Amino acid sequence: MTDQFRFDSDALPPGQAFDAYRRLYAVGSDVSRGAGPFFAWVRAVRLDGLILFERRLDGVVHSRSARAGRDRFDHFALHLVLSGELEGGRESRFDRAGPGDLLLVDTRRASRTEARELHVLTASVPRAAIAAACGALDGLHGRIIGAPRTFVLRDLMQSVVRNADGFRDDVLPSLRRAFQELLNATLADLSTSSAVLLRLDQARREAAERFILAHLDDRDLGAATVAAGIGASRSTLYRLFAEDGGVARFIMSRRLGAVRGALEGGATEPLSALALAHGFTDESHLNRRFKQAYGQPAGAYRRSVAETGEDAVAAAVRRWAGWMIEVS
Predict the structure, then answer these.
(1) Closest Cα to residue 250, out of 237, 231, 262, 263?
(2) How far apart are CA 53 and CA 66, in angstroms?
(3) What gap in Å lies between CA 212 and CA 44, rounded to an integer?
(4) Any idea where the domains of the chain sit in the sequence?
(5) Environment class of residue 153 by beta-carbon count within 10 Å: exposed (0-12), middle (13-18) or buried (19+)?
(6) For FRET with 48, which of 76, 215, 255, 273 sits at 20 to 30 Å CA-CA?
(7) HTH araC/xylS-type domain: which residues (predicted)?
(8) Which residues share a beta bridge with 58?
(9) pLDDT, tens digit, for every residue of 268-307?
(10) What is the rounded CA–CA span in Å between residue 79 and residue 102?
């Protein structure tokens, strides 16, 4: 099943709604009140390294001016406006995005946006996905692609967000590939000659990722076994995962993500069993690595899941923080 969460300001007491929303977004943006009454409704799903949101927002400002280049965010956010208006400014490098517009935002760069009666679809995607679509990444921050070029991508994004329940884990890579192909078509006018080679690299990398996900329980999983499994040279593999810090680091991030997902899903197995099932040497090894990635050992994370109980905002904050670490 897909990892997901929801937020609805109307479900909270009026005096608490905005503070709860600001708390939700504190992982990546500074949030302040905009013009008009505040409203926020969010549905979010995580699909194999791709995060999709459907949001209805009004009277709220998101800013990364003080965070860009200083936090761990290193991905692109794509905002596809369904209705209303997303207002930018000089630092965001765009003035206004309206219905049918797709806005590209590089999280390494400063941005400030204000939502005005906005209904928007957002995708948080790794830089490699944008590179495969466009080639060069310079100059993409603040670029807007207008309708009708965006309509097919819009339909896919909205359908996936609204129908995410029930997808098995082995189906998620197919959904991500469908998104990538439509993204390539949508951004075709921004594509450079280097994109062709980058797409070939991406296909090889996806094969490697599928192999890794299928063998997370193998403690001996490494560059040599992955290379042999997909019929690629180790040098090719090292190049494909260079931006991730290497193959071993990517494998570890997927192991940790799988354990985090299991804990979020209420897994009852002892941590020692979860550790062995995901390729860790033992529980101590899991806890040490988990703390490095998420700021607390796996045991403490499990307790935080149990303690939040019916606190949907706390659960969403914790889940989203984990997602952002993985996508960046």
Answers:
(1) 237
(2) 23
(3) 25
(4) 1-191, 193-328
(5) buried
(6) 273
(7) 206-304
(8) 39
(9) 999 999 999 999 999 999 999 999 999 999 999 999 888 8
(10) 6
Q: Please determine whether the domains at 1-191 and 193-328 fall in the same fold group of CATH.
A: no
Q: What are phi and psi of 221, to 5 degrees?
A: -60, 125
Please tell me whether the peptide bond between 148 and the residue prior to it is cis, using omega within 30 degrees of 0: yes
Residue 1 has pLDDT above 70, yes or no: no
Query: Which two structure tokens, joined as six digits, stand for 67?
Result: 């965070």
**Which strand (E) or helix (H) includes residue 47?**
strand 39-47
Q: How many CA atoms lie within 13 A of 132 on its CB side?
A: 21
User: Using CA atoms, how far apart are residues 40 and 281, in angstroms rounded to an integer?
Assistant: 44
Q: For residue 173, give both structure tokens.
A: 């890579």
The Cα–Cα gap between 53 and 162 comes to 10
Residue 190 burial (CB < 10 Å; 0-12/13-18/19+)?
Answer: middle
Averaged over 224-247, what is the pLDDT? Answer: 91
Domain at 193-328: CATH code: 1.10.10.60
- Contact between residue 51 and residue 124 where contact means Cβ atoms under 8 Å apart: yes
Q: Nearest-CA neighbor of 102 among 70, 73, 74, 134? A: 134
Q: Which helix (H) or strand (E) holds 85?
A: strand 75-89
Q: Residue 166: what residue type?
A: G
Largest interatomic CA distance in the chain: 59
Residue 322 and residue 44: Cα distance in Å, rounded? 13
| DSSP states along 108-160 | TS--EEEEEEEEEEEEEEEHHHHHHHHS--TT-TT-EE-TTTTHHHHHHHHHH
Q: Which amino acid is at 13?
A: P
Task: For domain 1-191, give the fold.
Answer: Jelly Rolls (2.60.120)
Residues 107 and 136 sit within 8 Å (Cβ to Cβ): no
Amino acid of residue 63? S
Ranges 49-53, 66-70, 106-110, 193-197: which has the least confidence: 193-197
Neighbours of 179 (CB within 10 A): 21
Which amino acid would we find at residue 10?
A: D
